[in-house]
Amino acid sequence: MNFILGLIAAIGAAVLNAVAFIGELGMFAFSGLSHILRPPYYPRMIGRSLMEIGFNSLPVVALTALFTGMVLALQSYTGFSRFNAESAIASVVVLSVTRELGPVLAGLMVSGRAGAAMAAELGTMRVTDQIDALSTLSTEPMKYLVAPRLIAGIIALPLLVAIADILGVMGGFLVATWKLGFNPGTYLVSTFSNLRSDDVVSGLIKAGVFGFIIALMGCFNGYRSRGGAQGVGAATTAAVVSASILILALDYVLTQVLFVK
Amino acid sequence: MSQAQPKIRIRGLKKAFGDKKVLDGVDLDVMPGTAMVVIGGSGTGKSVLIKSILGLVTPDAGVIEIDGEDVLKAPARRARELRAQIGMLFQNGALFDSLSVWENVAFGLLAEKKVKRGAARDKAIEVLAQVGLAENVANLSPSELSGGMQKRVALARAIASEPAIMFFDEPTTGLDPIMGAVIDELIVDCVKRLGSSSIAITHDMASAQRIGDSAAMLYEGRVCWTGPASGLLTSTDPVVDQFTHGRAQGPIKMALRR
Question: What is the ipTM of this complex?
Fold first, then answer.
Protein backbone atom coordinates (compact mmCIF):
# COMPACT_ATOMS: atom_id res chain seq x y z
CA MET A 1 0.00 0.00 0.00
CA ASN A 2 2.78 2.38 0.98
CA PHE A 3 4.56 1.54 -2.26
CA ILE A 4 1.49 2.42 -4.34
CA LEU A 5 0.97 5.68 -2.44
CA GLY A 6 4.64 6.53 -2.89
CA LEU A 7 4.40 5.79 -6.63
CA ILE A 8 1.29 7.97 -7.01
CA ALA A 9 2.98 10.76 -5.05
CA ALA A 10 6.09 10.53 -7.24
CA ILE A 11 4.01 10.63 -10.44
CA GLY A 12 1.99 13.55 -9.06
CA ALA A 13 5.15 15.46 -8.14
CA ALA A 14 6.61 14.83 -11.59
CA VAL A 15 3.44 16.06 -13.29
CA LEU A 16 3.31 19.16 -11.09
CA ASN A 17 6.98 19.89 -11.82
CA ALA A 18 6.37 19.48 -15.56
CA VAL A 19 3.36 21.82 -15.45
CA ALA A 20 5.34 24.37 -13.41
CA PHE A 21 8.23 24.14 -15.90
CA ILE A 22 5.95 24.64 -18.90
CA GLY A 23 4.25 27.57 -17.17
CA GLU A 24 7.58 29.15 -16.29
CA LEU A 25 8.88 28.68 -19.84
CA GLY A 26 5.66 30.11 -21.31
CA MET A 27 5.85 33.19 -19.09
CA PHE A 28 9.54 33.65 -19.94
CA ALA A 29 8.81 33.38 -23.68
CA PHE A 30 5.91 35.83 -23.39
CA SER A 31 8.03 38.28 -21.43
CA GLY A 32 10.87 37.97 -23.97
CA LEU A 33 8.50 38.55 -26.91
CA SER A 34 6.87 41.53 -25.20
CA HIS A 35 10.31 43.10 -24.68
CA ILE A 36 11.07 42.59 -28.38
CA LEU A 37 8.05 44.71 -29.21
CA ARG A 38 8.67 47.51 -26.69
CA PRO A 39 11.53 50.04 -26.70
CA PRO A 40 14.17 50.79 -25.60
CA TYR A 41 16.28 48.61 -27.88
CA TYR A 42 19.96 47.83 -27.54
CA PRO A 43 21.34 47.73 -31.13
CA ARG A 44 24.85 46.96 -29.87
CA MET A 45 23.62 43.87 -28.05
CA ILE A 46 21.56 42.78 -31.08
CA GLY A 47 24.65 43.19 -33.29
CA ARG A 48 26.81 41.25 -30.85
CA SER A 49 24.23 38.44 -30.69
CA LEU A 50 23.94 38.35 -34.49
CA MET A 51 27.70 37.90 -34.71
CA GLU A 52 27.66 35.20 -32.05
CA ILE A 53 24.68 33.22 -33.35
CA GLY A 54 25.03 33.95 -37.05
CA PHE A 55 28.50 34.83 -38.25
CA ASN A 56 30.43 32.66 -35.78
CA SER A 57 28.20 29.66 -36.56
CA LEU A 58 28.75 30.02 -40.30
CA PRO A 59 31.75 27.63 -40.63
CA VAL A 60 30.11 24.76 -38.79
CA VAL A 61 26.77 25.20 -40.59
CA ALA A 62 28.49 25.55 -43.97
CA LEU A 63 30.54 22.38 -43.53
CA THR A 64 27.52 20.45 -42.28
CA ALA A 65 25.43 21.54 -45.26
CA LEU A 66 28.15 20.86 -47.80
CA PHE A 67 28.83 17.32 -46.60
CA THR A 68 25.12 16.60 -46.14
CA GLY A 69 24.49 17.51 -49.78
CA MET A 70 27.41 15.35 -50.88
CA VAL A 71 26.29 12.33 -48.85
CA LEU A 72 22.70 12.78 -49.99
CA ALA A 73 23.72 12.68 -53.65
CA LEU A 74 25.85 9.60 -53.07
CA GLN A 75 23.21 7.73 -51.06
CA SER A 76 20.44 8.66 -53.50
CA TYR A 77 22.50 7.41 -56.39
CA THR A 78 23.19 4.10 -54.64
CA GLY A 79 19.49 3.56 -53.99
CA PHE A 80 17.96 5.05 -57.10
CA SER A 81 20.29 3.27 -59.52
CA ARG A 82 18.55 0.01 -58.52
CA PHE A 83 15.36 1.37 -60.12
CA ASN A 84 17.01 3.31 -62.98
CA ALA A 85 15.82 6.53 -61.30
CA GLU A 86 19.17 8.36 -61.20
CA SER A 87 17.59 11.38 -62.89
CA ALA A 88 15.65 12.11 -59.69
CA ILE A 89 18.81 12.67 -57.66
CA ALA A 90 18.98 16.42 -58.29
CA SER A 91 15.36 16.88 -57.18
CA VAL A 92 15.86 14.72 -54.09
CA VAL A 93 18.93 16.68 -53.06
CA VAL A 94 17.45 20.14 -53.54
CA LEU A 95 14.09 19.35 -51.95
CA SER A 96 15.63 17.48 -49.02
CA VAL A 97 18.09 20.25 -48.32
CA THR A 98 15.74 23.23 -48.65
CA ARG A 99 12.70 21.73 -46.99
CA GLU A 100 14.22 19.60 -44.29
CA LEU A 101 17.92 19.04 -43.82
CA GLY A 102 19.03 22.66 -44.16
CA PRO A 103 16.83 24.06 -41.36
CA VAL A 104 17.02 21.01 -39.07
CA LEU A 105 20.77 20.39 -39.28
CA ALA A 106 21.59 24.11 -39.07
CA GLY A 107 19.26 24.34 -36.07
CA LEU A 108 20.92 21.41 -34.31
CA MET A 109 24.42 22.71 -35.02
CA VAL A 110 23.62 26.25 -33.86
CA SER A 111 21.90 24.85 -30.79
CA GLY A 112 25.06 22.94 -29.87
CA ARG A 113 27.28 25.94 -30.48
CA ALA A 114 25.45 29.20 -29.82
CA GLY A 115 22.64 27.85 -27.59
CA ALA A 116 25.16 26.31 -25.23
CA ALA A 117 27.24 29.50 -25.21
CA MET A 118 24.17 31.60 -24.40
CA ALA A 119 23.19 29.37 -21.49
CA ALA A 120 26.74 29.35 -20.13
CA GLU A 121 27.11 33.13 -20.40
CA LEU A 122 23.76 33.97 -18.80
CA GLY A 123 24.22 31.22 -16.21
CA THR A 124 27.59 32.64 -15.19
CA MET A 125 26.09 36.12 -15.07
CA ARG A 126 23.33 34.79 -12.82
CA VAL A 127 25.59 33.02 -10.31
CA THR A 128 28.02 35.97 -10.14
CA ASP A 129 25.21 38.52 -9.49
CA GLN A 130 25.77 40.27 -12.83
CA ILE A 131 22.08 39.94 -13.71
CA ASP A 132 21.11 41.46 -10.34
CA ALA A 133 23.67 44.19 -10.98
CA LEU A 134 21.88 45.06 -14.24
CA SER A 135 18.66 45.59 -12.30
CA THR A 136 20.41 47.89 -9.82
CA LEU A 137 21.65 49.95 -12.78
CA SER A 138 18.03 50.54 -13.85
CA THR A 139 18.38 48.13 -16.77
CA GLU A 140 15.74 45.45 -17.32
CA PRO A 141 17.72 42.19 -17.75
CA MET A 142 15.05 40.60 -19.98
CA LYS A 143 15.28 43.58 -22.32
CA TYR A 144 19.07 43.85 -22.26
CA LEU A 145 20.07 40.18 -22.27
CA VAL A 146 17.16 38.12 -23.59
CA ALA A 147 15.32 40.23 -26.19
CA PRO A 148 18.45 40.93 -28.33
CA ARG A 149 19.29 37.21 -28.40
CA LEU A 150 15.73 36.29 -29.41
CA ILE A 151 15.80 38.89 -32.20
CA ALA A 152 19.22 37.68 -33.34
CA GLY A 153 18.08 34.03 -33.32
CA ILE A 154 15.02 34.83 -35.46
CA ILE A 155 17.13 36.82 -37.97
CA ALA A 156 20.33 34.76 -38.03
CA LEU A 157 18.96 31.25 -38.54
CA PRO A 158 17.11 31.99 -41.83
CA LEU A 159 20.27 33.68 -43.15
CA LEU A 160 22.37 30.68 -42.14
CA VAL A 161 19.85 28.29 -43.67
CA ALA A 162 19.81 30.25 -46.94
CA ILE A 163 23.58 29.77 -47.12
CA ALA A 164 23.24 26.13 -46.03
CA ASP A 165 20.70 25.55 -48.84
CA ILE A 166 23.12 26.87 -51.44
CA LEU A 167 26.06 24.88 -50.07
CA GLY A 168 24.00 21.70 -49.66
CA VAL A 169 22.86 21.84 -53.28
CA MET A 170 26.43 22.64 -54.31
CA GLY A 171 27.69 19.57 -52.40
CA GLY A 172 25.23 17.36 -54.27
CA PHE A 173 26.22 19.00 -57.56
CA LEU A 174 29.94 18.40 -56.93
CA VAL A 175 29.48 14.71 -56.16
CA ALA A 176 27.01 14.18 -59.00
CA THR A 177 29.18 15.81 -61.64
CA TRP A 178 32.68 14.82 -60.50
CA LYS A 179 32.11 11.38 -59.07
CA LEU A 180 28.87 10.06 -60.58
CA GLY A 181 29.38 11.41 -64.10
CA PHE A 182 26.27 13.63 -64.40
CA ASN A 183 26.24 16.39 -66.99
CA PRO A 184 26.56 19.69 -65.04
CA GLY A 185 24.02 21.57 -67.17
CA THR A 186 21.45 18.79 -67.03
CA TYR A 187 21.89 18.45 -63.26
CA LEU A 188 21.34 22.17 -62.69
CA VAL A 189 18.29 22.27 -64.95
CA SER A 190 16.86 19.30 -63.13
CA THR A 191 17.58 20.97 -59.79
CA PHE A 192 15.86 24.25 -60.53
CA SER A 193 12.99 22.90 -62.59
CA ASN A 194 11.69 20.96 -59.62
CA LEU A 195 12.29 23.67 -57.03
CA ARG A 196 9.44 26.02 -56.10
CA SER A 197 9.76 29.18 -54.09
CA ASP A 198 7.45 27.59 -51.47
CA ASP A 199 10.09 24.98 -50.76
CA VAL A 200 12.72 27.57 -49.91
CA VAL A 201 10.38 29.97 -48.06
CA SER A 202 8.92 27.18 -45.94
CA GLY A 203 12.41 26.09 -44.96
CA LEU A 204 13.29 29.65 -44.01
CA ILE A 205 10.12 29.93 -41.89
CA LYS A 206 11.17 26.76 -40.11
CA ALA A 207 14.60 28.30 -39.58
CA GLY A 208 13.12 31.45 -38.00
CA VAL A 209 11.12 29.32 -35.56
CA PHE A 210 14.17 27.18 -34.75
CA GLY A 211 16.26 30.31 -34.19
CA PHE A 212 13.71 31.58 -31.69
CA ILE A 213 13.65 28.19 -29.93
CA ILE A 214 17.46 28.01 -29.69
CA ALA A 215 17.73 31.52 -28.23
CA LEU A 216 14.74 30.96 -25.93
CA MET A 217 16.07 27.70 -24.46
CA GLY A 218 19.61 29.08 -24.13
CA CYS A 219 18.40 32.20 -22.35
CA PHE A 220 15.74 30.44 -20.24
CA ASN A 221 18.08 27.79 -18.90
CA GLY A 222 20.95 30.23 -18.32
CA TYR A 223 18.72 32.86 -16.72
CA ARG A 224 17.32 30.48 -14.11
CA SER A 225 20.53 28.57 -13.35
CA ARG A 226 21.54 28.24 -9.72
CA GLY A 227 24.35 26.85 -7.63
CA GLY A 228 27.68 27.84 -9.15
CA ALA A 229 29.69 25.94 -11.76
CA GLN A 230 27.60 22.78 -11.51
CA GLY A 231 24.39 24.76 -12.04
CA VAL A 232 25.84 26.51 -15.08
CA GLY A 233 26.95 23.17 -16.52
CA ALA A 234 23.50 21.68 -15.99
CA ALA A 235 21.88 24.75 -17.58
CA THR A 236 24.12 24.44 -20.64
CA THR A 237 23.28 20.76 -21.09
CA ALA A 238 19.56 21.42 -20.59
CA ALA A 239 19.65 24.26 -23.13
CA VAL A 240 21.14 22.06 -25.87
CA VAL A 241 19.05 18.98 -25.15
CA SER A 242 15.74 20.83 -24.82
CA ALA A 243 16.36 22.98 -27.91
CA SER A 244 17.34 19.91 -29.98
CA ILE A 245 14.24 17.96 -28.95
CA LEU A 246 11.98 20.96 -29.55
CA ILE A 247 13.54 21.53 -32.99
CA LEU A 248 12.84 17.93 -34.01
CA ALA A 249 9.31 17.97 -32.58
CA LEU A 250 8.44 21.36 -34.09
CA ASP A 251 9.93 20.23 -37.40
CA TYR A 252 7.21 17.60 -37.61
CA VAL A 253 4.50 20.10 -36.66
CA LEU A 254 5.74 22.71 -39.14
CA THR A 255 6.10 20.13 -41.92
CA GLN A 256 2.50 19.12 -41.29
CA VAL A 257 1.36 22.74 -41.39
CA LEU A 258 3.52 23.99 -44.28
CA PHE A 259 3.76 21.04 -46.67
CA VAL A 260 0.86 18.65 -46.12
CA LYS A 261 -2.12 20.05 -48.02
CA MET B 1 9.57 69.25 17.29
CA SER B 2 8.82 66.80 14.48
CA GLN B 3 11.31 64.02 13.84
CA ALA B 4 12.99 63.90 10.41
CA GLN B 5 11.54 61.39 7.95
CA PRO B 6 13.79 58.35 7.47
CA LYS B 7 15.28 57.95 3.99
CA ILE B 8 14.49 54.23 4.28
CA ARG B 9 11.86 52.92 6.69
CA ILE B 10 11.22 49.20 7.03
CA ARG B 11 8.44 47.72 9.13
CA GLY B 12 7.47 44.10 9.76
CA LEU B 13 9.43 42.78 6.77
CA LYS B 14 8.98 39.04 6.36
CA LYS B 15 10.45 36.58 3.87
CA ALA B 16 10.51 32.79 3.97
CA PHE B 17 12.03 30.31 1.54
CA GLY B 18 9.93 27.18 1.93
CA ASP B 19 9.78 26.40 5.64
CA LYS B 20 12.77 28.57 6.45
CA LYS B 21 11.83 31.99 7.80
CA VAL B 22 14.73 34.23 6.84
CA LEU B 23 13.19 37.58 7.77
CA ASP B 24 10.54 37.46 10.46
CA GLY B 25 9.42 41.02 11.07
CA VAL B 26 12.40 43.30 10.46
CA ASP B 27 12.03 46.95 11.54
CA LEU B 28 14.76 49.38 10.50
CA ASP B 29 15.17 53.12 9.91
CA VAL B 30 17.98 54.73 7.94
CA MET B 31 18.04 58.49 8.41
CA PRO B 32 19.04 60.83 5.56
CA GLY B 33 22.76 61.24 5.11
CA THR B 34 23.65 58.52 7.64
CA ALA B 35 25.45 55.20 7.23
CA MET B 36 23.84 52.12 8.76
CA VAL B 37 25.82 48.90 9.19
CA VAL B 38 23.89 45.63 9.40
CA ILE B 39 25.71 42.75 11.06
CA GLY B 40 24.66 39.17 11.70
CA GLY B 41 25.73 35.59 11.20
CA SER B 42 25.72 33.80 7.86
CA GLY B 43 22.22 32.98 6.67
CA THR B 44 20.50 35.49 8.96
CA GLY B 45 18.99 37.35 6.01
CA LYS B 46 21.24 40.38 5.62
CA SER B 47 21.51 39.99 1.84
CA VAL B 48 17.80 39.14 1.58
CA LEU B 49 17.07 42.40 3.42
CA ILE B 50 18.88 44.61 0.91
CA LYS B 51 17.71 42.51 -2.05
CA SER B 52 14.14 43.09 -0.83
CA ILE B 53 14.71 46.85 -0.82
CA LEU B 54 16.26 46.64 -4.29
CA GLY B 55 13.32 44.61 -5.61
CA LEU B 56 15.46 41.57 -6.42
CA VAL B 57 13.53 39.52 -3.84
CA THR B 58 9.79 39.90 -3.24
CA PRO B 59 8.98 39.96 0.49
CA ASP B 60 6.04 37.99 1.86
CA ALA B 61 4.84 40.86 4.05
CA GLY B 62 5.87 44.22 5.45
CA VAL B 63 6.50 47.80 4.44
CA ILE B 64 9.54 49.26 2.68
CA GLU B 65 9.38 53.04 2.41
CA ILE B 66 11.83 55.21 0.50
CA ASP B 67 11.29 58.92 1.13
CA GLY B 68 7.98 58.00 2.78
CA GLU B 69 6.60 56.02 -0.20
CA ASP B 70 5.96 52.30 0.11
CA VAL B 71 7.82 50.72 -2.82
CA LEU B 72 5.95 47.46 -2.38
CA LYS B 73 2.58 49.16 -2.96
CA ALA B 74 3.70 51.78 -5.49
CA PRO B 75 2.91 51.22 -9.20
CA ALA B 76 5.74 49.41 -11.00
CA ARG B 77 7.01 52.55 -12.77
CA ARG B 78 7.08 54.59 -9.54
CA ALA B 79 8.77 51.73 -7.66
CA ARG B 80 11.45 51.65 -10.38
CA GLU B 81 11.93 55.41 -10.05
CA LEU B 82 12.31 55.14 -6.26
CA ARG B 83 14.78 52.28 -6.58
CA ALA B 84 16.72 54.06 -9.34
CA GLN B 85 18.24 56.26 -6.63
CA ILE B 86 20.00 53.23 -5.10
CA GLY B 87 23.60 52.34 -6.01
CA MET B 88 24.83 48.89 -5.07
CA LEU B 89 28.29 47.46 -4.47
CA PHE B 90 28.05 43.67 -4.70
CA GLN B 91 30.16 41.33 -2.57
CA ASN B 92 32.06 39.94 -5.53
CA GLY B 93 31.91 43.15 -7.54
CA ALA B 94 29.57 41.63 -10.17
CA LEU B 95 31.41 43.47 -12.93
CA PHE B 96 30.25 42.66 -16.46
CA ASP B 97 33.10 40.56 -17.80
CA SER B 98 32.09 41.10 -21.43
CA LEU B 99 32.70 44.85 -21.05
CA SER B 100 35.85 46.85 -20.39
CA VAL B 101 36.45 48.68 -17.11
CA TRP B 102 35.26 52.04 -18.44
CA GLU B 103 32.18 50.50 -20.07
CA ASN B 104 31.31 48.95 -16.69
CA VAL B 105 31.64 52.28 -14.92
CA ALA B 106 29.69 54.15 -17.60
CA PHE B 107 27.11 51.38 -18.05
CA GLY B 108 24.17 53.46 -16.82
CA LEU B 109 25.16 56.35 -19.09
CA LEU B 110 25.58 54.13 -22.15
CA ALA B 111 22.65 51.76 -21.72
CA GLU B 112 19.98 53.95 -20.19
CA LYS B 113 20.90 57.59 -20.73
CA LYS B 114 22.22 56.93 -24.28
CA VAL B 115 25.22 59.22 -23.74
CA LYS B 116 27.73 59.19 -26.63
CA ARG B 117 30.59 56.75 -26.06
CA GLY B 118 33.29 59.42 -26.02
CA ALA B 119 31.53 61.51 -23.38
CA ALA B 120 30.68 58.40 -21.35
CA ARG B 121 34.33 57.31 -21.41
CA ASP B 122 35.45 60.75 -20.17
CA LYS B 123 32.95 60.57 -17.31
CA ALA B 124 34.07 57.00 -16.47
CA ILE B 125 37.71 58.10 -16.27
CA GLU B 126 36.69 60.98 -13.99
CA VAL B 127 34.84 58.58 -11.66
CA LEU B 128 37.69 56.05 -11.76
CA ALA B 129 40.01 58.84 -10.56
CA GLN B 130 37.70 59.38 -7.59
CA VAL B 131 38.35 55.78 -6.46
CA GLY B 132 42.08 56.09 -7.06
CA LEU B 133 42.36 54.35 -10.44
CA ALA B 134 44.36 55.77 -13.31
CA GLU B 135 43.21 56.15 -16.91
CA ASN B 136 45.39 53.25 -18.04
CA VAL B 137 43.01 50.69 -16.46
CA ALA B 138 40.02 52.03 -18.40
CA ASN B 139 40.45 49.75 -21.40
CA LEU B 140 41.33 46.62 -19.42
CA SER B 141 38.93 43.75 -18.89
CA PRO B 142 37.74 43.22 -15.27
CA SER B 143 39.46 39.81 -15.25
CA GLU B 144 42.82 41.55 -15.69
CA LEU B 145 42.43 43.41 -12.38
CA SER B 146 43.31 42.38 -8.82
CA GLY B 147 40.52 41.84 -6.26
CA GLY B 148 41.07 45.26 -4.71
CA MET B 149 41.01 47.00 -8.08
CA GLN B 150 37.83 45.13 -9.06
CA LYS B 151 36.19 46.40 -5.85
CA ARG B 152 37.25 49.94 -6.72
CA VAL B 153 35.80 49.62 -10.22
CA ALA B 154 32.58 48.21 -8.76
CA LEU B 155 32.47 51.16 -6.35
CA ALA B 156 33.07 53.55 -9.23
CA ARG B 157 30.18 51.94 -11.14
CA ALA B 158 27.93 52.27 -8.08
CA ILE B 159 28.68 55.97 -7.57
CA ALA B 160 28.74 56.97 -11.26
CA SER B 161 25.06 57.91 -11.21
CA GLU B 162 25.54 59.83 -7.93
CA PRO B 163 22.90 57.82 -6.05
CA ALA B 164 21.05 59.20 -3.04
CA ILE B 165 21.18 55.76 -1.39
CA MET B 166 24.06 53.29 -1.44
CA PHE B 167 24.19 49.62 -0.42
CA PHE B 168 27.43 47.77 0.25
CA ASP B 169 27.37 43.98 0.52
CA GLU B 170 30.43 42.85 2.49
CA PRO B 171 32.71 45.42 0.84
CA THR B 172 35.95 44.15 2.41
CA THR B 173 35.40 40.39 1.97
CA GLY B 174 38.36 38.73 0.25
CA LEU B 175 40.67 41.73 0.65
CA ASP B 176 43.77 42.02 2.81
CA PRO B 177 43.40 44.30 5.87
CA ILE B 178 45.18 47.24 4.26
CA MET B 179 43.17 47.07 1.04
CA GLY B 180 40.04 46.60 3.18
CA ALA B 181 40.84 49.84 5.02
CA VAL B 182 41.48 51.61 1.71
CA ILE B 183 38.10 50.49 0.34
CA ASP B 184 36.40 51.58 3.58
CA GLU B 185 38.02 55.01 3.29
CA LEU B 186 36.81 55.31 -0.30
CA ILE B 187 33.30 54.28 0.73
CA VAL B 188 33.17 56.87 3.53
CA ASP B 189 34.59 59.51 1.19
CA CYS B 190 32.09 58.74 -1.61
CA VAL B 191 29.08 58.56 0.71
CA LYS B 192 30.00 61.86 2.40
CA ARG B 193 30.76 63.63 -0.88
CA LEU B 194 27.44 62.55 -2.41
CA GLY B 195 25.52 63.10 0.83
CA SER B 196 24.02 59.63 0.42
CA SER B 197 22.28 57.45 2.96
CA SER B 198 23.79 53.99 3.07
CA ILE B 199 23.37 50.46 4.32
CA ALA B 200 26.44 48.22 4.56
CA ILE B 201 26.42 44.53 5.36
CA THR B 202 29.58 43.22 6.91
CA HIS B 203 31.13 40.59 9.16
CA ASP B 204 34.23 42.74 9.58
CA MET B 205 33.95 44.64 12.87
CA ALA B 206 36.81 47.02 12.07
CA SER B 207 35.14 47.84 8.76
CA ALA B 208 31.74 48.24 10.46
CA GLN B 209 33.15 50.84 12.83
CA ARG B 210 34.98 52.67 10.06
CA ILE B 211 32.04 53.04 7.66
CA GLY B 212 29.00 53.06 9.95
CA ASP B 213 27.32 55.83 11.92
CA SER B 214 24.79 53.39 13.38
CA ALA B 215 24.55 49.61 13.47
CA ALA B 216 21.84 46.95 13.63
CA MET B 217 22.21 43.25 14.43
CA LEU B 218 20.02 40.70 12.67
CA TYR B 219 19.29 37.56 14.64
CA GLU B 220 16.55 34.98 14.17
CA GLY B 221 14.97 37.04 11.40
CA ARG B 222 14.64 40.26 13.39
CA VAL B 223 16.71 43.27 14.36
CA CYS B 224 17.70 42.36 17.91
CA TRP B 225 19.87 45.41 18.60
CA THR B 226 20.50 48.86 17.21
CA GLY B 227 22.94 51.50 18.40
CA PRO B 228 25.90 53.56 17.35
CA ALA B 229 28.47 51.66 15.28
CA SER B 230 31.15 52.87 17.67
CA GLY B 231 29.38 50.96 20.47
CA LEU B 232 29.42 47.57 18.73
CA LEU B 233 32.40 46.18 20.64
CA THR B 234 31.22 47.50 24.00
CA SER B 235 27.59 46.43 23.73
CA THR B 236 26.28 44.48 26.71
CA ASP B 237 23.67 42.73 24.57
CA PRO B 238 24.67 39.04 24.82
CA VAL B 239 24.01 38.30 21.13
CA VAL B 240 25.97 41.34 19.92
CA ASP B 241 28.73 40.71 22.44
CA GLN B 242 29.14 37.10 21.32
CA PHE B 243 29.05 37.97 17.62
CA THR B 244 31.38 40.97 17.69
CA HIS B 245 33.94 39.16 19.84
CA GLY B 246 33.60 35.88 17.96
CA ARG B 247 32.95 33.83 21.11
CA ALA B 248 32.10 30.15 20.66
CA GLN B 249 29.86 30.15 23.73
CA GLY B 250 26.67 32.16 23.90
CA PRO B 251 23.11 32.46 22.66
CA ILE B 252 23.97 32.23 18.96
CA LYS B 253 25.65 28.86 19.31
CA MET B 254 22.71 27.63 21.39
CA ALA B 255 20.44 28.64 18.53
CA LEU B 256 22.58 26.67 16.08
CA ARG B 257 22.36 23.55 18.22
CA ARG B 258 18.57 23.49 18.18
Answer: 0.87
